[in-house]
Design goal:
mainly alpha; two-stranded antiparallel sheet; 2 strands; elongated; type I protein arginine methyltransferase; coiled coil; ANM3-like_C2H2_Zf; EC 2.1.1.319; cytoplasm
């Protein structure tokens, strides 16, 4: 074999080996990414110690769902403008380190320098803490149904209050109707002079009754429209 052909074969072999190495590298990177995603998903499904107690929950989602009625994570993140995973991690570590109560956190006002803003709260308290693996950009959607449910409960409570108010207004309207009906009946019977004087006073009050009646009727209609 000539030296030229030999060199060409070596170049072809080298190119093939290089291409093969690139393919292997891409496959390894893809496998690592898939493994990393699976590992992260597994972590958030592992048992986790509660943020505000020593209770152990089956997973992070279950923990936040248990706290939902007292500590609404979604609302808390919105209130304090926590949009990045770094801020979330510092928040969790702050809670682990300082052990504030739920009431303590609720009393915090929105600030550009919240107590968890210090970089020292990047230091974890629990090794491989599943709560830190919770991705607020992706996993938070799993709590979305809770936020919707909470909103629905609030709407239902407001509706119940409105219906109760309508019932009370209807009773007041019926009472006013009964009173004005009696006044009109008294006027049509031809009462005595003394009674007429009393009726004159009642007539003045009657105008107030009608005005009140109209007010409550309008108020009731507004509630029904709502």
């Amino acid at each position: 074999m000539s030296s030229i052909n030999k060199n060409e074969c070596e170049r072809d072999s080298s190119s093939s080996a290089s291409a093969s190495d690139d393919d292997d590298y891409d496959d390894n990177v893809e496998e690592e990414n898939v493994f990393g995603e699976q590992e992260e998903e597994i972590n958030i499904l592992e048992q986790v110690q509660g943020l505000f107690s020593t209770d152990v929950f089956s997973n992070v989602i279950e923990m936040f769902r248990t706290y939902q009625s007292k500590f609404d994570l979604i609302e808390f993140l919105k209130k304090h403008n926590i949009h990045s995973q770094y801020d979330y991690i510092r928040l969790i570590n702050y809670i682990r380190h300082e052990k504030p109560s739920i009431d303590d956190l609720k009393q915090l006002k929105s600030s550009k320098s919240p107590p968890w803003a210090d970089d020292k709260y990047f230091e974890t308290v629990i090794e491989n803490d599943p709560a830190l693996q919770f991705d607020i950009e992706e996993d938070l959607s799993q709590l979305g149904d809770l936020a919707i449910s909470s909103t629905d409960d609030q709407d239902n409570n407001q509706l119940k209050k409105a219906n109760e108010r309508i019932r009370q207004l209807e009773e007041m309207v019926d009472t006013l109707k009964s009173m004005t009906s009696r006044l009109l009946d008294d006027q049509s019977t031809g009462a005595t002079t003394t009674t007429s004087k009393a009726q004159t006073k009642d007539d003045i009050q009657d105008n107030g009754y009608f005005a009140t009646y109209n007010h409550y009727d309008i108020h009731k209609d507004m509630l029904q429209v709502w």
